[in-house]
Amino acid sequence: MKLEELSATEKAALLSGASEWDSRGNERAGIPSFVMSDGPHGVRRQLGAGDHLGIGASKPATCFPTAGTVANSWDPKLAEAMGQALGREAHDLDVNVLLGPGMNIKRNPLCGRNFEYYSEDPQLAGHMAAGLIRGIQSNGISACPKHFAVNSQELRRQSSNSVIDERTLREVYLTGFEIAVREADPWAIMSSYNEINGIYAHEHPHLLTDILRKEWGFKGAVISDWGGSDSAVAAVKAGGTLEMPSPGYTSVRELVAAVEAGTLAPADLNLRASEVAKLAQLTKTEGVGRDDLLTKDLIEAHHDVARTVAEGSIVLLKNDDQVLPFKPGSRVALVGDMAKTARFQGSGSSKVNATKSENLCDELGRMEGITLSGYQQGYERHGDVNRPLIEDAVALATSDQTDVVLAVVGLDERSESEGLDRSTMAIPQVQTDLVNALKATGKPLVVVLVTGSPVELPWFDDVSAMLHVGLSGQAGASAIARVLTGKVNPSGHLAETWPLAYQDCPNADWYPAVGRDAIYREGPFVGYRYYETAQVPVRFPFGFGLSYSSFDFSDLKADKTGISLTVTNQSDRAGATVVQLYVRGPQGGVLRPDHELKGFSKVWLEGHESKSVRIDFDRYSFRHFDPKTTAWHTESGQWTLLVGENAHELPLQVDFQVEGDVEPQAPSPTLGAYLTGKVKDVTDNQMASLFGHGVIAPGKPTVFGINDPISSWADSKGFAARTVAKTLIKREAKIREKTGQPDLNTLFVLNMPPRAMCKMTQGMIDASMVDAIVKIANGHTFRGAGSFIRGFFRNKAANKRIAKELNHD
Question: Tell me: the pLDDT tens digits for 486-545?
Fold first, then answer.
């Protein structure tokens, strides 16, 4: 039987999940069910019923470095190799759709999920994601880049409205997705939880149809984030394909009723059903099942891949007097809890049950040419004061048996997690106290920094050397050891700017938004676009990274299709650097950051070798989006091309005449502080000029609706709702304090709006029952409870009718 011959009910049933991870198939039409699973840096194939937060057990799989770490490699080919391994493991673990990579722009360093995202720049994020997607899909497994789009904070993530001007939306927050879609042709994409200018992403026709499908040519399925769908009917109309995890038959009933009422075109239902059928056929796997595990040979091979990726992603941030690599015969004192108990991934839905684990204490002890003079813990992992630990570390450092001190410091598991934004850019004070004590010994001090996001480094000027290793995956310890001892020459470059202090961030004063509206007041001045334009000093500029080698760029030339230059390794040691191309618009042109990344190339060179490097222009090089004409344009005139190893140090420049389709048009003086990039000084009137309209942020709600998070019930007049919210808030804080891990389940509930209940309960709760729950939240406890009970029995009966029809009884 063909898909077209199925009933409306059968087609509608294809558009929502059957369980936490499975789609619904249809045997009559030969459409198999397919399995979806996290995640972006390792397969999280759960056992049993499963959950979407990484709480339940899952099959062992390779934990690769996180996206925020891999991006530091600036090497899409390396990302593709990692993707090939990911896709192979997904296939062998009976997963059809792998939910990743995460591609959201890093708007602020405190976002709890930044470790899962690539960069503050869409060019780097887009090309790295395209590499990973190609690798995954080479195995017949679908990648599913996420979260589309403008998802920048974890607080209220399921009930937040991202308010953003159209030009910033298109140029900064969507361009990375565009590059990935055009370059890698993903078979699926995941919509985000949030609204965008008042419309939920999964039912946003401008986002899903006008831009994604019509402009970019996306032909795949749009899958909701888990519980991220609001209206099934609106989603199908807008271009949303599949609701996950499972709303039971509630959405089926709504879709069929809309078709019968004439408010949903049968053609839209058919189109969405065909997208599910296509994804099921593209990812159909044979010969694997739920009980399969990875083979020993595959585990060993992919552990090596994980190490290679980690090696290419480690960033050398400082190396005074060439302390690194360690000299032969060096006696090294190793300090730090994370050297013994490695932290190599973040918390949340991406957390992988790693096939193997390493720690730096063991791996450094195995390296030839150096000696470990000892190990000391140095600090309590979660920040408790324990002065004797510092004293023991200082004693080891001052020992006659120690030549150099190696301290491993960073953020703990509860600091970087899905569902929870960081409260500070500082590392725990006990670690800062340790570093200060160790540097006072006078011994050379090398710091290994374990964080998925930037942190403040008040002691940076006083240490001898520093490696940023990110969250480096299960083979990260051996990769770090190989870099420290010189077996690997570090070649990573930072994929985001590191400010000196949090208050230097452009949006520090309004991030995260605590109310419904997250207003992107800073416009396009995100990351280096702000720091370079407003001339704000930073700790490390975007693209920064040192090497054990030194490189020279020369002979920059530009022609109609791109640039060329010569790169020379001026040292004896083979190594790699990243050539970065930035462009500056013509004088008198539209509002822009001072310069923007438009191309890059990682170049490997033997000692004293020179290579000619070319970077071609593409559709993204000179364009800007004009909201008035709702089209992309290129300004004619003299542009400046700038080349260097980071966004701040660009020694090569050349003027370049561009023949565009419009003449330069000066920005309106009403933009005020935006004209200099000093967005902290922007007034409400200037913001209205950028947005094209005024923006009013509402206060606390006095009446709660289906889209207000459970956490907001703490202000409810209703005793029952207020008690529920406050109890959950206290519970999460208590568990986090006790275990050192965030309570993801409670965080999810607190961020969840009531509407998600009918999307996450496999049909036990429908929309009318959600309305009843909201009545309780608004203080009408008994009336709401009565409505809920009546709705329960109505919903149960209706679900039985749909099940009977689908089973053809």
Answer: 999 999 999 999 999 999 999 999 999 988 899 999 999 999 999 999 999 999 999 999
Return d(Cα 558, Cα 562) in angstroms, integer: 6
Please, which residues have CB within 8 angstroms of residue 727's CB and are 6 or more apart in sequence?
A: none
Q: Which of 225, 708, 743, 766 is catalytic?
A: 225
Residues 6+ apart with CB under 8 A from 598: 123, 581, 582, 583, 617, 620, 621, 622
Give yes or no for residue 657 having a pLDDT over 60: yes
Which amino acid is located at 698 in the chain? Answer: P
98 neighbors 141 (Cβ within 8 angstroms): yes
Query: Residue by residue, what is the 3-state secondary structure of 626-667?
Result: ECCCCEEEEECEEEEEEEECCCCCCCEEEEEEECCCECCCCC
Taking only the tens place, the pLDDT of each residue in 262-280 is 999 999 999 999 999 999 9
Q: Which two tokens stand for residue 61?
A: 């799989």
* Alpha carbon distance 314, 487 (integer Å): 13
* Strands of the 161-163 sheet, one edge to the other: 199-200, 195-196, 161-163, 517-519
Q: What are the Cα distances from residue 107, in Å, to 172, 345, 507, 697? A: 10, 21, 8, 19
How many C-beta neighbours within 10 Å does residue 269 have?
22
362 has a pLDDT exceeding 90: yes
Q: Which two tokens stand for residue 656?
A: 């370049």
Nearest to 143 by CA among 157, 132, 155: 132
Q: Answer whether 41's CB lies under 8 Å from 350's CB.
A: yes
* All domains in the chain, ordered by first residue: 549-666 (2.60.40.10), 710-806 (no CATH)
* CA 755 centroid distance within chain: 25
- Asked if pLDDT for residue 699 goes beyond 60, the answer is no
Residue type at position 403: D
The Cα 374–Cα 392 span in angstroms is: 11
pLDDT tens digit sequence for 188-240: 999 999 999 999 999 999 999 999 999 999 999 999 999 999 899 999 999 99
- DSSP assignment letter at 633: E
Model-level pTM greater than 0.85?
Answer: yes
pLDDT at 771: 86
Q: Looking at residue 319, what is its pLDDT? A: 98
What is the spatial distance between Cα 751 and Cα 153, in angstroms, rounded to a whole number? 11
Question: What is the DSSP track for 498-567?
Answer: EESSGGGSTTGGG-S--SSEEE-TTTT--THHHHHHHT--EEE-TT--B-SS-EEEEEEEEETTEEEEEE
Q: Are 633 and 623 in contact (CB under 8 A)?
A: yes
Which pLDDT belongs to residue 150? 97
**Residue 415 near residue 453, CB atoms below 8 Å:** no
Residue 655 among the catalytic residues: no
CB atoms < 10 A from the CB of 745, how many? 16
Please say whether the beta carbons of 101 and 133 come within 8 A.
yes
Statement: residue 770 has pLDDT above 90? no
- pLDDT of residue 77 exceeding 80: yes
d(CA 342, CA 519): 38
3-state secondary structure of 413: coil
> What φ, ψ does residue 332 adopt, rounded to 5°?
-110, 125
With the CA atoms of 432, 434, 439 and 444 taken in that order, what torsion angle do they form, in degrees rounded to the nearest 10?
-110
Give the 3-state secondary structure of residue 189.
Answer: strand
- What confidence score (pLDDT) does residue 808 get? 62
